[in-house]
Specification:
heterodimer; A: 326 residues; alpha/beta; 8-stranded mixed β-sheet; 4-stranded antiparallel β-sheet; 11 helices; B: 291 residues; mainly alpha; MetI-like fold; 12 helices; 74% helix
Chain lengths: 326, 291
């Protein structure tokens, strides 16, 4: 049984405000942030979700933790639907599943010292029996993420980006979770700190048998950290398979274009001409008919403009949504 | 009981605030003015050199002398003593009114921002109704219904000013609750009361503090206006506002007389707002990098 299973997740943001809009009788504006996404994450796996900005990665991450309610679809955690959880079940789920937010610093309360930030989950879940031993536990957690004791008395603005990120990770680890959603955990960090954080996350995964849902747009990072990759385009998964396969034998034209940017720089640091996807991401309010990638796809033919391709198995464990392979 | 890490942390944090305020001249300035007013309010009978109600028509409208340090008013009463006694209603009205409006404002503002929906519309409607009337008319109507007394003046002033706080709290809460750290707390399983009291309130309190520092003085002025109309304090009780109203008729014969209550009001306002400002800075860790 998969640890996390997402079935046909849909999240539409609806805007039907505005008198003029109602008068024009056009019906509500729907932003299809996530449109029919399904995937599974096995225990101790890392599934990376990659894609351009605005393709719905973060919405998937927040839905998986029920921070927003999905429009349709189901999210199963250990085989149970999290959308039907009652208050106690939800609290138990919050203990098991943690999140690392995108911005390292703004995810920490500016009026809390590090000690309070790291110990907050312990207070919330009543895991503090003797308050006096609290500092030991906090120091232990800080040590785990490579920070010394003295940081426990600092405020978030006194930390560097990398240190703030480590504090965020320590907070996520405080309850010994099984599943962590990492929403671009390395964004805004410089390269050397990025790799330190990545190594830390990998070490922690091995040590504590963690399962990650890793949201990213950094392909180098994805290759290093994940063993499965889902490529998203305009709210849909267009290709999902093992990391090795996607880096070597990707089939979807969008994946190909996305990953060719990586290859261009990789060859002995000589910048090579590589495919650049033309045009812009279409608006998710008004996605193109048929395959949503067809206006930018160099292989597109008639069928692409009319029929929406389904996510189908190309080979075992390798799914893609493209008419070329059906 | 007090041997918990929570208590140590509170101790450490408040020690830090005090340490910062000790370096700030504004804290001394504001603090000493507030202390002065509080002391004269509490110990008025001990401090006042003369009976504030004793009239002496032969000595009316005199300037400062050794016997009457700040001179006498139109009925020959000692101005200094009256000034000291009048600190009592000033403190009661300004503190009481502000506390009432801050508490009601925070509760309604938080409810509006947090619950939303119909409740928010109702609360905003209440704010709008209160603000739509010119305050003086609203206060006059309410006072003539309830009847003039110190307590009713305090309550009515508090309720009239309350929408200012409600609106500020609602607006700040709306922006604060979308912050990343609030979402992080929610993903950790924090319930609404924890999010409100630990994450949102401490972060919006600065604005409320600054606003209340400014409103303290306007409370005193409102009380003065109401007393002038006979709806505030009843004679022979006195307040700075009443003294201001009494003395402006004699501004040409005894110009110094109006100066004293005006100075007292100005000093109070200055004291409250500088102290509030200093507290605001000390409470915000971002504004004190080098402690």
């Amino acid at each position: 049984m998969a640890l996390v299973e997402v079935k046909n997740l849909k999240k539409y943001f609806v805007n039907n405000d505005g008198l003029l809009y109602k008068l024009a009788n056009k019906g509500p504006i729907k932003v299809k942030a996530v449109d029919d996404v399904s995937f599974k994450i096995e225990k101790e796996d890392t599934l990376a979700v990659v894609g351009e900005s605005g393709c719905g990665k973060t919405t998937v991450a927040r839905s998986v933790l029920r921070l927003i309610e999905p429009t349709a679809g189901e999210i199963l955690y250990k085989g149970r639907s999290i959308n039907n959880f009652n208050k106690q079940e939800l609290k138990a789920f919050r203990e098991d599943a943690q999140m690392i937010l995108q911005d390292p610093r703004s995810s920490l309360n500016p009026r809390f010292i590090v000690e309070e930030i790291v110990s907050e989950p312990l207070y919330i879940h009543d895991q503090i029996k003797d308050d006096l031993n609290l500092l030991d536990r906090v120091w232990e957690l800080l040590d785990l993420v490579g920070l010394s004791k003295r940081y426990s008395e600092l405020f978030p603005h006194e930390l560097s980006g990398g240190q703030a990120r480590r504090v965020g990770i320590a907070r996520a680890l405080a309850l010994q979770p099984e599943f962590i959603v990492c929403d671009e955990p390395t964004s805004g960090l410089d390269i050397s700190i990025m790799s330190a954080v990545l190594n830390l996350m990998k070490k922690l995964q091995q040590e504590y048998q963690l399962t990650y849902l890793w949201i990213s747009h950094n392909l180098h990072e994805v290759r290093y950290i994940s063993n499965k990759v889902a490529v998203m385009y305009l709210g849909k998964i267009v290709e999902i398979t093992d990391t090795d396969t996607i880096f070597n034998n990707s089939v979807h034209p969008y994946t190909e274009a996305l990953f060719s940017s990586l290859r261009g720089i990789n060859d002995n640091w000589n910048y090579q001409e590589h495919e650049i996807i033309e045009g812009e991401v279409p608006s998710p309010i008004n996605p193109p008919a048929g395959c949503s990638f067809h206006p930018r796809c160099k292989y597109s033919f008639d069928k692409c403009k009319k029929v929406e391709p389904e996510l189908k198995e190309v080979e075992i464990g390798h799914l893609a949504a493209c008419h070329l392979y059906n | 009981m007090f041997k918990s890490q929570k208590f140590f942390r509170f101790q450490k944090k408040s020690a830090r605030v005090i340490k910062i305020m000790k370096k700030d001249y504004k804290a001394y300035l504001g603090g000493s003015v507030i202390m002065l007013i509080l002391i004269s309010a509490i110990f008025a009978p001990l401090i006042a050199p003369a009976d504030p109600y004793k009239t002496n028509v032969t000595k009316r409208l005199e300037g400062p002398s050794l016997q009457n340090l700040l001179g006498t008013d139109s009925l020959g009463r000692d101005i200094l003593s009256r000034l000291i006694y009048a600190a009592r209603p000033a403190v009661l009205v300004s503190f009481g009114g502000i506390i009432i409006s801050v508490i009601i404002g925070i509760i309604l503002g938080l409810l509006a921002a947090y619950v939303g929906g119909i409740l928010e519309s109702i609360i905003l409607f209440i704010f709008d109704v209160i603000r739509a009337f010119p305050p003086i008319i609203l206060i006059l109507v309410l006072l003539s219904i309830i009847g003039p007394s110190l307590l009713s003046v305090i309550v009515i002033l508090g309720v009239t000013i309350m929408p200012r706080y409600g609106r500020v709290v609602r607006a700040e809460t709306l922006s604060e609750k979308e912050e990343d750290f609030v979402e992080a707390a929610r993903s950790l399983g924090a319930d609404n009361s924890r999010i409100i009291f630990k994450h949102i309130l401490p972060n919006i309190f600065a604005s409320v503090l600054v606003l209340s520092g400014m409103d303290m003085a306007s409370m005193i002025m409102w009380e003065a206006g109401l007393s002038f109309l006979g709806l505030g304090l009843q004679p022979p009780l006195s307040s700075w506002g009443v003294m201001l109203q009494e003395s402006y008729q004699y501004i040409q014969t005894a110009p110094l007389m109006i100066l004293w209550p005006a100075l007292a009001i100005m000093l109070t306002m200055l004291g409250f707002s500088t102290f509030a400002e200093s507290l605001r800075v000390a409470l915000n860790p971002k504004l004190n990098q080098e402690v």
